[in-house]
Amino acid sequence: MTTHTNLRLAVLIDADNVPRDSLKSAMEEIAIYGTPTIKRIYGDWTSPNVGGWKQSLLENAVTPIQQYGYTTGKNSTDSAMIIDAMDVLYSGRVDGFVLVSSDSDFTRLAIRLREAGMYVIGMGEKKTPMPFIVACDKFIYIEVLREREKEQKAAARKKKAETQKKTAERSKSAGKCAEKKTGEDTERVPEEIVALIASSVADLADDDGYIDLSNLGNLIIKKKPDFDPRNYGFGKLSNMLRYLPRFEVDVRTTADPHVRPMYIRDKEA
Q: What is the pTM for the complete model shown?
């Protein structure tokens, strides 16, 4: 059964109406709701105004769709995106759409997709007109995602500085051998991976702050496809989480003694 957390999603992005530095944050947010099986971005890639998108598109595996501006003052990108959306709709390959734009021209498209039974998520800046916002099942402001990313980076830098300070203090008292060993332990799981796990816990945690281990693992993989606990010397994600003091691992009992679900909580949340 398809739910609003495991949808097959078509992500269609209007390059003319979204900031390029928000793409990574947007794709991480989309991973909470499902798997983006189609990822396309529309624009006139011969224009110097969109030249800075290249690296972001490569890092997030988004396919650029070329659309020339045939007439000055007319936005042909919108038309191409709408036509593609209807083609994808009739193909029957997805359960929902993510329309990334701050342009009200996509209001009718959002309404039409919902009429066809699609779950529609909108993403745009706070300047987005209200008609487009209310035409979506859910609308997410890009400014909120960017602010969250800044907070996560600041927290990761602070945590790294604290770890380095503690390592230095222990090294002074324990000598050079202890210094080497502590350094190896500290670097075993990079801070950016700890931050990725923490943000994923926060995305799907219940009211008590816990998330099921399997759901956590699935979300991390959606955000970072090359994530593997074995990269950091752990056979399983559960072992990795037990090693990290930031996270609490709660193994719960059920009526079946052979079924013991595992839940994770971020102690610093």
A: 0.77
